[in-house]
Give the backbone structure.
Amino acid sequence: MPELPDIVVYIEALERRILHHSLERVRLSGPYLLRTASPPIQELEGKRVQGLRRIGKRIAMGFDEDYWLVLHLMIAGRLHWRDRGPAALPLPAKKPAPRSRDVAAFDFDNGSLTLTEAGSRKRASIHVVAGARKFAGLDPGGLEVLESSLEEFAARLTSENHTLKRALTDPHLMSGIGNAYSDEILYAAQLSPAALTSRLTAEEIARLHEATRMTLRDWTGRLREETGGGFPEKVTAFRPAMAVHGRHGQPCPRCGAKVQRIRYADNETNYCARCQTGGKLLADRSLSRLLKQDWPRTLEELEAMRTNEVRRGLTNVH
Ligand SMILES: [Zn+2]
């Protein structure tokens, strides 16, 4: 799933292309993508883009009259850009047969932004809202770690008792961090994904805060450099330069031990046992169960948009 570094780079590339440009037409391949009924998405047609923002792992496009389109790519959603040059094809007829993986197209006065989603399980989503209050309601409320002090981070981290893996990736607790960067952050902090937030020492929390900021900043810089002035077409959760994420069985870059993995729900976390868990394998059944219990049944559940009012009602379970 594209996380903060990928989303920041997507937004920068979009700012260079669609800011102050007019959206001429929206095409959707099916009804499942759009999760809001009012205002109709067609009301965006003819409006200009006034700003782009990141909400957690989502991309928000602000239009005239305070209309907002909020896009969640989930795991397999990707964006693509095609300039409308003199050689570009005219807009397709009213109901174009969607190309194999195109699920949406946004035709601007200077080019087309398309959304593709690989695989059969369609999970990407679009919300369209009007007005600042409705827009604010789409924010799950996770902490922006790059803009937060150690005190704010510590308070949020320990507001509920979770495993570190869950606390970092829960969009209601931390903003923009998913499965890939949480693995890298925990590795950089040399902390176990199964450690409980209530048991961390002040020193460990400070280390985690610093590792989170460093990892997100470092990767945003790398991806920005890789993209240059182009459009990010190689967005992936697996990058060769990552230390542990997606590197099960390969040597840890710090100590050379084999990178371990643990599977739970429909997820997987990678870590170095020697560097992060004092050599203990989390495949150990009790620790495995701990991560599993601390994880919602589905990723959709974790990523679901909830207002802060709803959130308060739901978090009393811990
Ligand atoms: Zn190691």
